[in-house]
Amino acid sequence: MFLYYVYILECSDNFYYTGITNTIDRSINEHQYGKHSNCYTYKRRPLTLMFQQEFNDVLQAIYFEKKIKGWTRAKKKALINDDFEMLQILSECRNATHFKYLGI
Q1: With 0-12 CB in 10 A as exposed, 13-18 as middle and 19+ as buried, what is 50?
Q2: Enclosing domain of residue 86
Q3: Do residues 41 and 31 touch, judged by C-beta distance below 8 A?
Q4: Are both 24 and 64 inside the same structural domain?
Q5: What distance in Å separates the CA atoms of residue 102 and residue 95, rounded to the nearest whole number?
Q6: How many Cα atoms within 13 Å fall on the side-chain side of residue 8?
Q7: Using one digit for the tens of pLDDT, what is the confidence trace for 10-46?
Q8: Statement to judge: residues 55 and 19 lie in one domain
Q9: What is the DSSP letter of 13?
Q10: Is residue 30 within 8 Å of residue 60, measured between CB atoms?
Q11: Which of 7, 83, 4 is CA-nearest to residue 47?
Q12: For the residues of 48-99, what is the DSSP string, one character each?
């Protein structure tokens, strides 16, 4: 049975990179040593592994990776820091037309 990992790297320019792999050590080393010169992280080294989550199902891992890629930096930071209360706050809809603000 394969294990899959979703991970977040912090780049030297303070941007986050989110990826998915089934060999976490190899993937981190490839990013760190610049194996692929066309990769987002190539010119943003050195890198720091900030977060990793293990999955048994590749489809769940892919779903989670895509979800994280759409998040703001603040939400990613809350996930990295295991601050689930802040993550929930940042996930709430703040749109003025949201039912929470309509007095319903």
Answers
A1: middle
A2: 72-104
A3: yes
A4: yes
A5: 10
A6: 24
A7: 999 999 999 999 999 999 999 999 999 999 999 999 9
A8: yes
A9: T
A10: no
A11: 7
A12: EEEEEEEES-HHHHHHHHHHHHTS-HHHHHHHHTT-HHHHHHHHS---TTSG
